[in-house]
Amino acid sequence: MAGLIGKEMKTCAYCGRENPDDATRCAECSAQEFAEPVGPTNPRYVCYWFLAAVAIGLIGTTLSLIVAWQELRNEPHLDWKQYQTRSQLQHMAGKIKDYQSRNGALPTADALREALGAAPLDGWGRRFLYQLADGNFIVISYGRDGTPGGQGLDCDLTSRDLQPNASSPTFSQFYRDLANGGIMGTCLGCGALTFLTSLITLRPRPLTRRQVVRLALSIGATIIGTVVIAAFISGLHIPSH
What is the Cα–Cα distance from 185 to 189, expressed in whole angstroms? Predict the structure, then answer.
């Protein structure tokens, strides 16, 4: 940085080494081609340098959230209301089968309510739908939105399929509703780490092609490292209830 603020320097076009402005050959590789001299820091480059570091930090945060979502979306305890609904469905299915084995027939809705002692509610405070057809039964919860169909938290859960593939939270649901303080804090921390690393790695001046390649590899490695850390640490913040 001293070279940028004080004496003018010029950069080797081959290896990227800074040399005094009057040098005819690079002190590192002896090349004779130089990039344009670098004088006092140009405010425009400082602005680009900072904005680039911010953008890279945001990319690191977003990628960390995506990886955390991919790693955690199938965890049964991630959403307590879904978990509670699945437990109720399993409990009700067991009661229905016990009644059928004792009485030789499936219970009516009134008989089931009597066997359970009260009308059970799903995790969102709604009553389950109990249906009989052709000697079979099914108990249904319409999920968070209370209407048939839906994805993620809005997906229907039934006694026949407690955890359908469509019931995994979508990314927007994970980000808005399920990423608790620990998960979100980890992802934001990884983004901040990427931002700070970028501030150190980037330089507010023109770069040679070789320096650009090195810089891109360094930033890529930093982002990958922070994302791996986010995936590992986020798993420690799954609600256990």
Answer: 6
Residue in 92, 147, 107 with CA at minimum distance from that of residue 124: 147
| Residue 127 φ/ψ, nearest 5 degrees | -75, 150
pTM above 0.85, yes or no: no
First to last CA, the chain: 52
What are φ and ψ of residue 228, in 5° steps?
-60, -45
Q: Rounded to an integer, what is the distance from CA 180 to the centroid of its chain?
A: 12
Cα dist from 7 to 128, 161, 171, 191, whole Å: 77, 72, 51, 35
pLDDT tens for residues 88-135?
A: 999 999 999 999 999 999 999 888 888 888 888 999 999 999 999 888
What are the tens digits of pLDDT across the range 14-34?
A: 777 777 877 888 888 888 777
Q: Cα–Cα distance between 71 and 67 in angstroms, integer?
A: 6
Structural element, H or E, at residue 8: none
Per-residue pLDDT tens over the stretch 164-176: 999 999 998 988 8
